[in-house]
Amino acid sequence: MKDLFIRNDMAPTVSLLYSAVEENTLRLASIVSRMTHSELYYRGRCQTKNSTAQLLHHIANVDIRWVWRIKENRIPDHIEQVYGPMTDENGRLPEPENQPGLDELLRRHQHVVNELKSICFTLTEDDLHKPLSYDNDTVTVRWGIWHMADHNRYHQAHIEALKKEWKQDLAEYER
């Protein structure tokens, strides 16, 4: 039976939210687990879609920003330097620099999840109500952690669609 794991070393709601992030991270890794480098960087038949590599890079980029918002309610300059900008000069998701392989992209995201986990150990139920700045608005820490899980799951659908298109293109090419 599937369920979200509730940890004894975190506040109950914090644990529930962290568990949703962790579950979606594991599901994401499973979805991409056997991708070749070519499939990882496939951008659709017309080369107009975001590749799985771009989406993995984007998820890690967004999530590390949430981690820092929760930590200090600000995003330090060194995060911009390490993870790069959210979009490129054309407003699109940037390609990961130097086309890293799947293991590296997953390792980067796991690092972010580990950072979140270390923060979640320190959060109380009351901390979940703390306000954070986001998109010219204010949200709670609770909403931020939930958003990390939801955003990851949202892009899993895009990756699944790319995988399907890749397989169709591969089948047509082999005919």
UniProtKB/TrEMBL annotation:
Source domain of life is: Bacteria
Which species does the entry assign this protein to?
Bacillus inaquosorum KCTC 13429
* Pfam families linked to this entry: DinB_2
Q: SUPFAM superfamilies, alphabetically?
A: DinB/YfiT-like putative metalloenzymes
Q: What is this protein called?
A: DinB-like domain-containing protein
What sequence ranges are listed for the domain DinB-like? 24-159
